[in-house]
Amino acid sequence: GDDDHEGEFGASSGGAFHEGEVAFDEVAQEADDDRDTISLVVVGHVDAGKSTLNGHLLYALGYVDQKVMHRNERDSKVMGKASFAFAWLMDGNSDERERGVTIDVGVNTFATEHRRIQLLDAPGHKDFVPNMISGAAQADAAVLVIDGSTGEFESGFHAGGQTIEHTVLVRSLGVQQLIVAVNKMDNVGYSQERFDEIKKEVGAFVKRAGYRAEDVSFVPVSGFKGENLLERKEEALNKWYCGPTLVELIDRLHPPVRAVDQSMRMVVGDVFKTQGLGLCVAGKLDAGAVRVGDSLVCRPGDVEAVVRSVDKHGKRRRHARAGDSVTLALNGDREELDNVRVGNVLCCPRNPIPMVCSFLAQILTFDIAVPLTIGFQGVMYWQSVNEPVVLNRLLCLVDKQSGEISRKRPRAIGSSSTAIVQVTCQRAVCLERFADYKQLGRFTLREGGSSVAA
C-alpha cells in the first residue's frame, strides 16, 4: 500500500558518554550541512549505460580527479574498451572491468544546490539482481536508465529484460519517486519521436506498477557524451526539449519524512578496521539518532558496543539521525566485535530489533508462471541479508482495492495477487513489523533466479 509517514524529532538511543573512550574525538566540529540527504539508486537493464552515466555525472560535477580520469581513459583503451572510461569510475574491481558489467552496488556521494546525494549504482545483469535489491532497500528515490537505441529499449523492456523487474522491485521496496533517464539518445540523433515513444510505453507501465504520475519524471540524456546531465549543448535536442536536466530533476527530489522519533536502527552495510579507530561500521541510519558515547547492541549475536566516533559526509560529527549515511567507530570486547557482519543491525539496547523464525506477511506476487502453494521454498531478501524460507500457511487473499479479505485459506496464489501468508525461516532473523518500521518490514521473495513476490 501507499506509505503513510509520521514522526517528530526525538531523543537518541541513549547511552553514557565515556570521556576516555572518545578523547581523540576532541576535534573541531564543522557545522552540519543543512541540505537534505537522499539515497538514490540507479537501476536498469544490463548495458543500459548506468555506470557510464553515473561516472560522467560525477566527473561533470567535479568529483573525479583529472589524473584518475586520464588513467581510466588510458587503461580502457589498452583493454579495447575505450567507451568504458566513465563506467570504470563506478566499476572499480577487476571482474567488473573484465566482464564490462557492474557486479556489486557502487556507492558515491555528491551535492546539488539543495540536496546531498548518496549515489547507489546497482548491477543490471539478471545474475546480480540480489545485489540490486540490497541497494534498492537503502534508497529514497530511483533513476531508471533505459537504453534509447533502436532495438535495445525493446530487448530491455520485453523478452525477459530487467527493466520491468527492476522497476517493480524498486517500487515494492518502498521507493515512490522515479526519474526515467532515456539514455544513449545520441545513437538516435536525439529523436523526439523516439523519446516520446519510450515515454508513452514506460509511463503506462510505471503507473500500473504503483507509481503516481506526479512522482515520475522523464529526461533524455547521453551518459557517454554528457548531454543533458548538467547542461544541454546539442542543437538537435535543444530544438524540442526545454525541460530540466538530470541534475535539476535530482535536486527537486523530496526527502521522505525520517523516523527520527523511533528507537535507533542501522543495518550494517560495511565492516572494516583502521589503525586509529579500530572496528568501524558503515550504513544508513534507518531510524532514531546516534551520538558519540551511545551504547548499542548488534543483532544477531547481541554484541554490545559503545559509539566511539560518528563520521558523516567524510567529517567527524557528534551525532547523526535517521536518513544519514554514517560510519561509526565502535568500542567493545574485541573478540565479540569481530563477529559483527554486513547485514547485522545496530540498535538501541532498550528496544532492540526483534528476532523471529516465523511471521505473518502480506505479499504481492509478481508475474509468476507457477502459483505459490503451501510448502513453497524460496529465498527471502531483506536489506543485504538472504535466508531460505518456506510458506507454511496461506491464510487469505486480499482485495487490492478495498483491502478486505476476498477468500480464506486459498489453495494457491496466482500472479499479481495480494495475500497474507505465514513464512518460516531456518534460523532467527532480524525483522520489524511493517506498521512500526516500514523499510525494515519489507522483503522480497525469489526462487530459481526470479523474483516472485514482495
Molecular structure report:
- The strands form 4 sheets. Strands 16, 17, 18, 19, 20, 21 and 22 form a 7-stranded antiparallel sheet that branches. Strands 2-3-1-4-5-6 form a 6-stranded mixed sheet, sandwiched between helices. A 6-stranded antiparallel beta barrel has the order 7-8-14-11-10-15.
- The chain folds into 3 domains: 19-30 and 258-347, Translation factors (Elongation Factor Tu (Ef-tu), domain 3), CATH 2.40.30.10; 36-251, Rossmann fold (3-Layer(aba) Sandwich); 355-453, Elongation Factor Tu (Ef-tu), domain 3.
- The protein has helices at 50-60, 66-78, 94-99, 129-136, 152-157, 162-172, 192-208, 235-238, 246-251, 334-337, and strands at 36-43, 106-111, 115-121, 141-147, 177-183, 216-220, 265-274, 278-287, 289-291, 295-299, 303-312, 315-317, 319-321, 325-331, 345-347, 355-364, 377-382, 385-398, 405-408, 418-430, 444-447, 450-453.
- By secondary structure, the protein is an alpha+beta fold.
- It catalyses: GTP + H2O = GDP + phosphate + H(+).
- GO terms for molecular function: GTP binding; GTPase activity.
- Residues 35-260 form the Tr-type G domain.
Secondary-structure map:
Elements: E1 36-43, H1 50-60, H2 66-78, H3 94-99, E2 106-111, E3 115-121, H4 129-136, E4 141-147, H5 152-157, H6 162-172, E5 177-183, H7 192-208, E6 216-220, H8 235-238, H9 246-251, E7 265-274, E8 278-287, E9 289-291, E10 295-299, E11 303-312, E12 315-317, E13 319-321, E14 325-331, H10 334-337, E15 345-347, E16 355-364, E17 377-382, E18 385-398, E19 405-408, E20 418-430, E21 444-447, E22 450-453
Parallel strand pairs: 1-3, 1-4, 4-5, 5-6
Antiparallel strand pairs: 2-3, 7-8, 7-15, 8-14, 9-13, 10-11, 10-15, 11-12, 11-14, 16-20, 17-18, 17-21, 18-19, 18-20, 21-22
